[in-house]
């Protein structure tokens, strides 16, 4: 296929992916909007006023970046894992597998679909947060870069999950038992300076800590960790996940008998 | 004439160790209407799966219009349209979206995709259903949707895996007509089936596959010639004995009012009746024994 034809194929997947999550917006866009609004009300407004300052900011200002990032991560991941697993489960992934498009086209089509949902939900959550606090983005470049890289990384991870999933339980295991806990413990709600040395050390092993803090640095200008380290880590994980996805596609693992 | 599909020494061992194809060779010329006939579990879908890249081959070569699926897969895929045995489209998408998106996967612009979708959906009687979610279609419509989808990039080779299984007679006829028309306009067609009648009325060449081996590969005419004998079951008015013999014919005693008689190609039913008349035997009824495919398999497998 020529580059122009690959582009058409890529665009076809992206368009279909976006239409899919928009069509089922009650399952994809509404829940994070409701959950995050509740977080803002409870942690930011009700409890936050008693907590006082965190990392030099009001508690509301402190938690908002982490909550936005959490929405981006879970939505990018969930979009790709449920869409690609659904295609496998109903077998219409075969429509793609018999076509001449390249593996890169297939992969990026799904990944950009996931990124689109991650960003859209991130945007919705950001707008909702504006009812509770104001956002003064300190480093626009850092903010955009970390959101993009993170949503790509978790879309790729969702793709890997979908390839190996055998049923719908396997699709929700990672978001529920891995992503959410790690994000909660990754400094969304507190600065790790508050933790005893041992637990602060343990927290530094959690990749989410770096992502949440890099984004917080972009928005508020403060971070518990070195931002360059955060970028290197997200970049490294993204490359590794990409290479593994390409391996899965070219070997046909779990996709071709 | 170019060779549309060439298969050499194709083997498939599934992950569980089952050898579904034991080294098959097959050649289909451009423009042909080719039947791959065989009983359930013979390896038909496995063969098609490998050609369309959904199944990984264990050994052997496949070329589609000269493009190897090993070294030139994208070019090979471009030439092929597949209609699988089982429905494999999204239940929630509309007929229109399914067909138009498939065109997109082949890199066709939405304008061209739209024109072709209209053309094929109309030809296949699905135009009125274009905005309907695919899960609302009847079985026959779903099958036609898959044919429209397979044709959207106008492949030179159309492969259909048991396209008329579970399709009612009327629809089967119209599908046959449609396929004949597509074939006349130059598309090479391969279909798998386990009905000899279907292969007989549509196809010019035929291969018979059984247990992962090709047991016959010939023209339809030559094959039908091989149907040299036909077995009839005859009912008699009078009682017959187990040592019954009719000169010039093989017979087999079934019970005291029924026996089998083998009619070889070349002899006529008149000869049968004059032989029976000589023995003063009165026949009250007579019928064909087995379906012809079964008969064919038995004779082919016995010959190997
Ligand atoms: N994924 C699989 N794993 C193991 N065995 C399989 C698989 N798919 C098919 N088979 C076996 O391979 C043989 C050929 O199957 P198939 O090609 O579907 O036959 P047909 O289409 O002629 O009915 C059958 O015995 C079937 O059970
Ligand atoms: Mg089959």
UniProtKB/TrEMBL annotation, chain A:
Stretches assigned to the ABC transmembrane type-2 domain: 23-252
Record-annotated membrane-spanning stretches: 29-51, 63-85, 106-132, 144-164, 171-192, 230-249
PROSITE patterns cross-referenced by the UniProt entry: ABC_TM2
Membrane topology reported for the UniProt record: Multi-pass membrane protein
InterPro entries hit by this protein: ABC-2_transport_permease, ABC2_TM, ABC2_TM_bact-type, ABC_2_transport
Localisation: Cell inner membrane; Membrane
Keyword set, alphabetical order: Cell membrane, Membrane, Transmembrane, Transmembrane helix, Transport
Family: Belongs to the ABC-2 integral membrane protein family.
NCBIfam families xref list: PRK15066.1
Record-given protein name: Transport permease protein
Species the sequence originates in: Zhongshania aquimaris
Lineage: Bacteria, Pseudomonadati, Pseudomonadota, Gammaproteobacteria, Cellvibrionales
From TrEMBL, chain B:
MF annotations from Gene Ontology: ATP binding
Domain ABC transporter: 5-236
PROSITE patterns xref list: ABC_TRANSPORTER_1 (PS00211), ABC_TRANSPORTER_2 (PS50893)
Pfam families referenced in this protein's UniProt entry, alphabetically: ABC_tran
Swiss-Prot/TrEMBL keywords: ATP-binding, Nucleotide-binding, Transport
InterPro entries in the cross-refs: AAA+_ATPase (IPR003593), ABC_transporter-like_ATP-bd (IPR003439), ABC_transporter-like_CS (IPR017871), ABC_transporter_ATP-binding (IPR050763)
Domain of life: Bacteria
Name the record gives this protein: ABC transporter ATP-binding protein
Organism: Zhongshania aquimaris
């Amino acid at each position: 296929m020529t580059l122009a034809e690959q582009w058409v194929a890529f665009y076809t997947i992206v368009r279909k992916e976006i239409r899919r999550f928009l069509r089922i917006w009650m399952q994809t866009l509404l829940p994070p909007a409701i959950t995050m609004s509740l977080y803002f009300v409870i942690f930011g407004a009700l409890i936050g006023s008693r907590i006082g300052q965190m990392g030099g900011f009001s508690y509301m200002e402190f938690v908002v970046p982490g909550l936005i990032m959490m929405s981006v991560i879970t939505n990018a991941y969930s979009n790709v894992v449920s869409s690609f697993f659904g295609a496998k489960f109903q077998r219409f992934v075969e429509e793609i597998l018999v076509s001449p498009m390249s593996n890169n086209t297939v992969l990026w089509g799904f990944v950009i679909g996931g990124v689109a949902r991650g960003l859209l939900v991130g945007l919705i959550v950001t707008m909702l947060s504006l009812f509770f606090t104001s956002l003064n983005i300190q480093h626009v470049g850092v903010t955009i870069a970390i959101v993009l890289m993170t949503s790509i990384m978790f879309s790729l991870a969702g793709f890997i999950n979908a390839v190996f999933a055998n049923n719908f339980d396997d699709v929700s295991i990672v978001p529920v038992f891995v992503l959410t806990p790690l994000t909660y413990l990754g400094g969304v709600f507190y600065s790790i300076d508050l933790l005893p040395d041992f637990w602060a050390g343990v927290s530094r092993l959690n990749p989410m800590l770096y992502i949440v803090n890099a984004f917080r640095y972009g928005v508020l200008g403060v971070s518990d960790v070195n931002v360059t380290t955060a970028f290197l880590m997200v970049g490294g994980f993204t490359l590794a996940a990409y290479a593994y996805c390409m391996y899965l596609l070219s070997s046909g693992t779990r996709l071709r008998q | 004439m170019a060779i549309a599909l060439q298969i050499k020494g194709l083997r498939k061992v599934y992950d569980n160790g089952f050898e579904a194809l034991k080294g098959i060779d097959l050649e289909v010329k451009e423009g042909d209407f080719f039947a791959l006939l065989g009983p359930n579990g013979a390896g038909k879908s496995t063969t098609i799966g490998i050609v369309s890249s959904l199944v990984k081959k264990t050994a052997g070569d496949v070329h589609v219009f000269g493009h190897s699926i090993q070294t030139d897969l994208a070019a090979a895929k471009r030439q092929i349209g597949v209609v699988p045995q089982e429905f494999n489209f999204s239940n929630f998408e509309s007929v229109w979206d399914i067909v138009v998106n498939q065109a997109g996967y082949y890199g066709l612009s939405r304008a061209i995709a739209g024109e072709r979708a209209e053309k094929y959906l109309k030809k296949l009687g699905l135009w009125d259903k274009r905005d309907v979610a695919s899960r609302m279609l009847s079985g026959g419509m779903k099958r036609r949707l898959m044919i429209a989808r397979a044709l959207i990039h106008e492949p030179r080779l159309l492969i259909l895996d048991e396209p008329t299984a579970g399709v009612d007679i009327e629809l089967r006829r119209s599908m046959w007509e449609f396929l004949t028309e597509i074939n006349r306009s130059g598309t090479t067609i391969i279909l798998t089936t386990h009905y000899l009648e279907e292969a007989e009325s549509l196809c010019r060449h035929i291969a018979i596959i059984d247990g992962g081996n090709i047991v016959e590969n010939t023209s339809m005419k030559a094959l039908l010639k091989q149907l040299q004998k036909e077995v009839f079951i005859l009912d008699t008015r009078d009682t017959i004995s187990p040592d019954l013999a009719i000169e010039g014919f093989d017979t087999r005693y079934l019970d005291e009012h029924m026996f089998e008689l083998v009619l070889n190609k070349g002899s006529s039913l008149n000869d049968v009746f004059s032989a029976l008349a000589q023995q003063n035997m009165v026949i009250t009824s007579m019928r064909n024994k087995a379906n012809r495919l079964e008969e064919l398999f038995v004779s082919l497998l016995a010959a190997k």
